[in-house]
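User: Reviewer 2 asked us to show a designed sequence for the structure in our supplementary figure. I'm pasting the structure tokens here. Could you produce the per-position amino acids so we can include them in the response letter?
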């Protein structure tokens, strides 16, 4: 792990000297050119997907070093986390798209990044921040990073801090209980979205970094919420956001099923903690620090949601067209397009598309 600007600079200079001695100075020049040249955003993903793993890893490691440098220089409060869990390269980390490019993820004790995701996101930064980068930015990357100015690595820096906050806020321990209406996968996805709202709107006011395109943002993009909900989603803790989303989805599904919402409200429609409140209540190691808000009680006694009530929490609901299905063995996702008896037809979709469908079914 690079721990200082001078160490980072010395490593790069050492590499440059080595390459020039070996007659391979063009490699350094090529990477320097790569660092600053903006490319067609539409072609980014296809080009990166075709990139060899060795090339992607080499570029990603240097980009991650630049992000780490900015964090060490301007966000010293996160240094202990990078010392304890330095980012680990892992192809296929996080949510994997149809082209095989993953994202960045955390297990609670380690942070993993797909090198191709890092390169792709850096490419996006070169395109999006081109107007903010002058000739000095393109030539003097170290000085620009140290000064905290706009840089193509800012998207990756945002994602890295985002993953650090998942760990520092103990989101993996605060996961709420199962639902009578939603499957275990849907609960997991909904919790991820709720925690992303909490983190991203904590970081969004910081002008030194930028929310990565496609990230959860209540004010714009695929995860935008109605105007009268924006203040709630941009200022509330993850537990409050989760129960708001859960309540709305459960009510919508009961309405679609023709049920009386008042008769069916007790199992979990009111957001007061009844969904699974009598089951697994002895698991209470999570959420204890967030319950003072008043909306966190449903998750406060359930900890990480590992209680025995999780099986069948939504799997008995009849499958219908438009539902999202998941193959846990392969990790692939699909959207149901037709149902003929026991035969189910579906189109394959990415995890990001699945998340978006689940998140916004309550707004339809």
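Assistant: Here is a per-position design you can include in the supplement:
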């Amino acid at each position: 792990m690079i721990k200082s600007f001078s160490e980072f600079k010395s490593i790069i200079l050492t590499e440059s000297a080595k390459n020039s001695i070996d007659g391979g100075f063009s490699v350094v020049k090529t990477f320097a050119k790569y660092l600053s040249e903006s490319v067609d955003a539409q072609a980014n993903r296809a080009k990166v997907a075709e990139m060899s793993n060795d090339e992607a890893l080499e570029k990603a490691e240097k980009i991650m070093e630049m992000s780490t440098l900015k964090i060490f220089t301007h966000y010293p409060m996160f240094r202990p986390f990078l010392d304890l869990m330095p980012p680990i390269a892992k192809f296929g980390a996080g949510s994997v798209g149809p082209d095989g490019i993953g994202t960045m993820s955390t297990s609670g004790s380690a942070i993993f990044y797909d090198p191709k995701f890092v390169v792709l996101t850096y490419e996006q930064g070169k395109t999006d921040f081109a107007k903010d980068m002058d000739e000095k930015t393109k030539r003097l990357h170290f000085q620009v990073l140290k000064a905290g100015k706009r840089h193509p690595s800012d998207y990756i820096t945002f994602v890295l801090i985002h993953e650090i906050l998942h760990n520092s806020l103990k989101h993996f321990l605060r996961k709420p209980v199962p639902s009578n209406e939603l499957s275990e996968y849907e609960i997991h996805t909904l919790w991820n979205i709720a925690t992303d709202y909490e983190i991203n709107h904590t970081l969004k006011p910081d002008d030194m970094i930028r929310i990565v395109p496609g990230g959860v943002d209540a004010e714009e993009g695929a995860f935008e919420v109605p105007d009268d909900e924006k203040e709630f989603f941009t200022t509330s803790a993850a537990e409050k956001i989760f129960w708001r989303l859960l309540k709305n989805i459960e009510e919508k599904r009961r309405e679609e099923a023709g049920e009386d919402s008042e008769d069916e409200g007790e199992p979990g429609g009111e957001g007061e903690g009844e969904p699974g409140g009598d089951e697994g209540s002895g698991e209470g190691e999570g959420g204890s620090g967030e319950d003072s808000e008043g909306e966190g009680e449903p998750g406060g006694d359930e900890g990480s949601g590992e209680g025995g009530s999780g099986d069948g929490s939504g799997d008995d609901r009849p499958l219908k067209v438009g539902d999202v299905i998941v193959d846990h063995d392969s990790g692939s996702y699909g959207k149901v397009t037709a149902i003929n008896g026991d035969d189910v037809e579906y189109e394959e979709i990415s995890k990001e598309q699945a998340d978006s469908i689940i998140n916004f079914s309550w707004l339809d």
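For the response letter, you might also mention the following. Residues 5-168 form one domain. The first helix runs from residue 5 to 21.
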